[in-house]
Amino acid sequence: MIRCHFARLLGERKLKIADVARDTGINRGTLTRLYYETAERIEMDVLDKLCDYFGIDLPELLQRTTSSEPHEK
């Protein structure tokens, strides 16, 4: 299972989805799907923009876990 830490990153930085959408040009719907971890696919350029925006590497945004690990947000 792939975990997306977008919601945690927003919370840590006290940001809203609208802030990230405005600052990066990424579609708000795409960001909402990442926030709720309902995205079925993510464009590479979206991942690149988010990593640049937050100043992180990809493993800090996405993490592969075993399906038995509890869901954390």
Helical coverage, percent range: 40-55%
Unreliable stretches: none
What structural category characterises the helix and strand content?
A: mainly alpha
Assess the beta-strand content as a share of residues: 5-15%
The number of helices is 5
Q: How many β-strand runs?
A: 2
Known CATH architecture? Orthogonal Bundle
Oligomer: single chain
Fourth CATH level, the homologous superfamily: lambda repressor-like DNA-binding domains
CATH topology: 434 Repressor (Amino-terminal Domain)
Helix-strand string = EHHHHHE
Task: Count up the domains.
Answer: 1
Rg computed from alpha carbons, rounded to a whole number of angstroms: 12 Å
Kindly report how far apart the N and C termini lie: 15 Å
Describe the structure.
The structure is a single chain. By secondary structure, this protein is mainly alpha-helical. It has a single domain (2-64), classed as lambda repressor-like DNA-binding domains (434 Repressor (Amino-terminal Domain), Orthogonal Bundle), CATH 1.10.260. It contains five helices and two strands. The protein has helices spanning 6-13, 17-24, 28-35, 44-54, 58-61, and strands at residues 2-4, 62-64. The longest helix is centred in the last third of the chain and has 11 residues, at 44-54.
